[in-house]
Design a protein that fits this description.
eight-stranded parallel sheet, 10 helices, 12 strands, 34% helix
Length: 325
């Protein structure tokens, strides 16, 4: 079985369910550290299972692992390149137009691919660039060093990637409506996707409606609340343990994650749950095998409480910070 697809605004197809590969751990300092454990094996297993949509990013530091898994399955004849949908992302310190081509070439080399199906501006926050190996920089007082780059200028460089065949589709991530509107006002190629945190506790209906009205697909990261996230606190809400989710799960004989993923799909989102656990990867894929009733959907709609698990609080000082402060 493979996931059904929907058409993006450029006519390309995207599977309605994907595998997220972001994996971080807290080693102090207020920002996460990439953890690559199990990524390659997870992607290999997911391909064998029928997944065709994979989400990675330069900032996840795992493009090499994702690319190696894909290369292995291509060589084995398990899947063809044209059947896969691979997303990666432009990191914050590559926003200057002259750096965009270099950034995607770095990603393509790591992924062992000639093109990606979707290339996203990972964040609206632009940061100072020093070299390809240096991430977000801080000054002597611990403040992040931002850069003043207009999103419209970065977007023009993104459009060139499509012209060159390096990216089939382009989009953004973590952009609010005002930031999206700014891009739309001057773009030649419209964003195909806005990837944002989206789940039953944070449905963002205004942003979703704005994207829908502009024919921009909304891809949902943390669609089950990311219970294994690096910044989870002991007393924080756990979406998968919500009583409403539990009641529906028991009644249908499905896991809480399956219920939450099915909810996102039926509400028009494209979820990309992250996991390296084979049991969870398979379980998540089985969310394609059933449907929620109108009553179930209505109950889950009632959970929205505008609760954001990833607010990227250390970056609130940026003038391009996209969330409410």
């Amino acid at each position: 079985m493979s996931a059904p697809t929907i058409k993006l605004n450029n006519g390309r197809n995207i599977p309605v369910l994907g595998l997220g590969t972001s994996q971080f751990e807290d080693k102090g300092g207020g920002m996460p550290t990439a953890n690559l454990t199990g990524t390659r094996e997870a992607v290999e297993y997911a391909i064998d299972l029928g997944y065709r949509h994979f989400d990675t990013a330069y900032n996840y530091c795992n493009e090499g692992e994702v690319g190696a898994a894909i290369a292995k399955k291509l060589q084995e004849g398990v899947v063809k390149r044209e059947d896969l949908f691979v997303t990666t992302k432009l990191f914050s310190n590559f926003h200057r137009p002259e750096l965009v081509a270099r950034a995607i070439q770095n990603s393509l080399t790591a992924l062992q691919l000639d093109y990606v199906d979707l290339y996203l501006i990972h964040s609206p926050i632009a940061a100072k660039y020093i070299d390809d190996k240096t991430g977000l920089l801080r000054d002597a007082d611990g403040n992040f060093l931002y850069d003043a780059v207009d999103h419209a200028d970065t977007w023009k460089a993104m459009e060139t990637l499509v012209d060159q065949g390096l990216a089939r589709s382009i989009g953004v991530s973590n952009f609010n409506t005002q930031q999206l509107q700014h891009v739309l006002e001057s773009c030649r190629i419209r964003p195909s996707v806005n990837q944002v945190e989206n789940h039953a506790y944070l449905m963002q209906p205004e942003l979703f409606d704005y994207c829908k009205s502009n024919d921009i697909a909304l891809v949902a990261y943390a669609p089950v609340g990311s219970p294994g996230r690096w910044n989870k606190t002991k007393d924080e809400l756990v979406l998968s343990q919500d009583p409403v989710v539990g009641d529906i799960s028991k009644r249908l004989g499905k896991s809480p994650s399956q219920v939450l993923l099915r909810f996102m799909i039926q509400r028009g989102r494209i979820p990309i749950p992250r996991s390296t656990n084979p049991v969870h990867i398979k379980e998540n894929f089985e969310a394609l095998e059933f449907e929620l009733s109108r009553a179930d959907l209505s109950e889950l709609d009632g959970l929205d409480r505008h609760h954001r698990f990833f607010d990227f609080a250390p970056l609130r000082t940026s003038p391009q910070y996209p969330f409410e402060k």
